[in-house]
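ok so for the tutorial part 2 we go from a plain amino acid sequence to predicted structure tokens. step 1 is just haveing the sequence, like this:
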Amino acid sequence: MGMRLHVGCAMWTHKAWQGRLLPHPLPTQERLRHYAGWCDAVEGNTTFYATPTPDTVAVWARQTSPDFRFVVKLPKLVTHERRLTDVNAPMRAFLDAIEPLGPRAHALWVQLPGSFGPADVPTLARFLRRLPDTHRCAVEVRHPAFFTDPRAGRELESVLAAVDAEWIPFDTTAFFADPPTSDAERDAWTKKPRLPLRTAALTDRPIVRYLGRDDPDRTVEGWRRWLDITAGWLREGRSPTVFIHTPDNADAPTLARRFHDEVRARVPTLAPLPEPIPVEPTTLF
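step 2 — the prediction. this is what the tokens look like for a chain of 285 residues:
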């Protein structure tokens, strides 16, 4: 098995992609298959709002190869409402629901609210220790102290390292470098976390979320540091997953592929991405 870098977006269906990157119309149970021709990973953001049925998840699995990566977000009930306490029942339901993904469930994504701070780390430690070791965890924190207070950062790292869990950075530094210029950017300006940059990996499967701008050139300019970091991880034998976001996500799949191409230019032994399924049916005439 050669080196693998997986890239993806925040969703696998988006109005802006219809008829341009993905055929339109496309039945629901075909959308992910077509997206998987562009990217080989996806953020499972929908599971934050509701736990899907195993039947729904089985449809996702059927549309993707076993090496496709889902980073599935834990339900809001678990992370935000109950803050990882007294969550046995919803966690069991969630793990049962995603079982059809099999090896595609690359990581359970524990996205914690901005109010979940250093004092809550023992709660996180307890939660992570109780999870079955059939799943890897990746934790995203948004409390500033984890980034600015070295002791808080070290404590979190040691809790994560104890269970081989990753720390997911959400790099919004390129996005917040200049004031917003569009409605999509203004909307993201009020919603996205503004945190210091973090680039360290804890495990052999780092996961990065990167937010660019509506202007593709600015997005590409802002990810330059990640090209070197990602190439370095690959040379160390790690297998990273990088998610490319922009405020409107209109070109996210093509940008994710471009990121992969640019890393591959540095690491030529990297396995190529799949070929997209053509949008227009090819004919002989």
